Amino acid sequence: MYRKLPLVLIGILLIFLTACSSTPIVIPNERLVQKALAVQLSQIQQQISQKLHLSTPLKLEIDRLRIQEQQQLKIGNLPAYRIIGTYDRTLQISQRRITQENNPFEVYLQLQKEGKTWRLAIPQTTDEDKIQSWRTYLIDGW
Description:
This is Lipoprotein. By secondary structure, the chain is of the alpha+beta class.
């Protein structure tokens, strides 16, 4: 009986530590951040293409993503992360390839209730740069 006591105590301790933890079990990985950044850049590119009346969107590749900071927060009462870093991008314009290095990025990722899917969250700000609401986009196939 006394041999099983340490195992029981360890089990109880693990239950308490897990129950007290506010950190979600799932955290964003580099692949997810790269997909979120691609969605965000696609949104920006669509807006620019519409304003400039461009018919063909530019081809964009994201390389060498480097995450420098991850900050946990809540967006709409769901766990989320603010992720800051840099990346290299290559634009394909006609027959030319242009590479730009060390571009800064900031993305917000929101974990959904079931803990299986992520959404890119883009803050919608007021004139005073205060966040009013969030527009979210599902990140497929991460």
